[in-house]
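Section 5.1 Outputs to date
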Amino acid sequence: MGSTVLSLRIDGELLDRVRRHAARSGMSVQDYVVRTLIREDFDQRFEAAVDETERFYGLT
């Protein structure tokens, strides 16, 4: 899998917060943002899978 550039504009205060979180985790800002996006994507897919399983078995 290759990589693609994603550019976004955020205000200085948010960037400072992201930098602090990344530093506490021992990561670069880029790595921190990518890991956060991956985690969020996994959480959404996992929740959708649980919901579908519950619907299949009639639990909801």
